[in-house]
């Protein structure tokens, strides 16, 4: 059983290695892979699925 | 209350907002706009029971369309699509500020590289060329010479999306190494900071150093009027000091409609997400009261 403070474990989609995500990670959040530095998007949390994040688009911003 | 958050990427700003909303016991529905469809009568997004939807889309185009559709279904949206429409486009932004008699940098729009060159030569060097849609200081050009102007205009005309052929030319404001970002809700400042850099671009996204800033009466007045000029809402109002640090004179260069606030939260003593959620609660209550009035009318 996990708690809110337990880190979340996930498979790096590029290298296949297990990586640790912050306990409060959100779907839609971008995580820097500790293995490759690639930006990964959190697609789901149950199960935990990561994908390579989309490239920056020209109309992104505030 | 039940709050929807429109998003396509959860930044630290959205995490702060989500945390504050959940801590107060509000029910939050995250709506990833990439997964939804928006029809003329309804959407696949689960919005029927929401008291308010907050647009936090990273993509300006998605922000503009999604808020417009939700508004058409009668879903209360922050910010209103009309506000987004003005803020998302630098030319419309400048026009709205000028029409409200708010000091803003002199600006011209031209549609060919020849007329853009004429505008640049009239402004003199340096002057600034900006994309009409864009953020974080990207693709901004400070033009120091005619040679540079010719090269940039040719590149934009040849390589760019059609929006890059709307040449937005602006006077260069010799600011004192910093500009001012104010987060305001319906014209009421939540927090303000300076963004300083040795580079002419001082955006926090470009690495500008941030520091809390106390707004004087003149700045307070300009923030309130700039907010009103674009339709109100939760906004990032950007000002530059003219005449040196502490001159008390400002020019408002733009108003942002999906404002990021993590830097403000760090740079100031203000609990920015708490203040924002205070305001969202008030907006949701006002929207509910309007609904009740309509239902009994």
Automatic annotation (TrEMBL), chain A:
Pfam family, one: Zn_ribbon_LysW
Taxonomic superkingdom: Archaea
NCBIfam families in alphabetical order: lysW
Name of the molecule in the record: Lysine biosynthesis protein LysW
Lineage: Archaea, Methanobacteriati, Methanobacteriota, Stenosarchaea group, Halobacteria
From TrEMBL, chain B:
GO cellular component terms given for this protein: cytoplasm
InterPro entries per record: ATP-grasp, ATP-grasp_RimK-type, ATP_grasp_subdomain_1, LysX/ArgX_preATP_grasp, LysX_arch, PreATP-grasp_dom_sf, Rp_bS6_RimK/Lys_biosynth_LsyX
Boundaries of every ATP-grasp domain copy: 94-281
GO MF annotations, alphabetized: ATP binding; coenzyme F420-2 alpha-glutamyl ligase activity; metal ion binding
One GO BP annotation of this record: lysine biosynthetic process
Cofactor: Mg(2+)
Spans traversing the lipid bilayer: none
Pathway involvement of the protein, from the record: Amino-acid biosynthesis
PROSITE patterns, alphabetized: ATP_GRASP
Keyword tags: Amino-acid biosynthesis, ATP-binding, Ligase, Magnesium, Metal-binding, Nucleotide-binding
Pfam families, per database record: LysX_preATP_grasp (PF22626), RimK (PF08443)
Family assignment from sequence similarity: Belongs to the RimK family. LysX subfamily.
Protein name: Lysine biosynthesis protein LysX
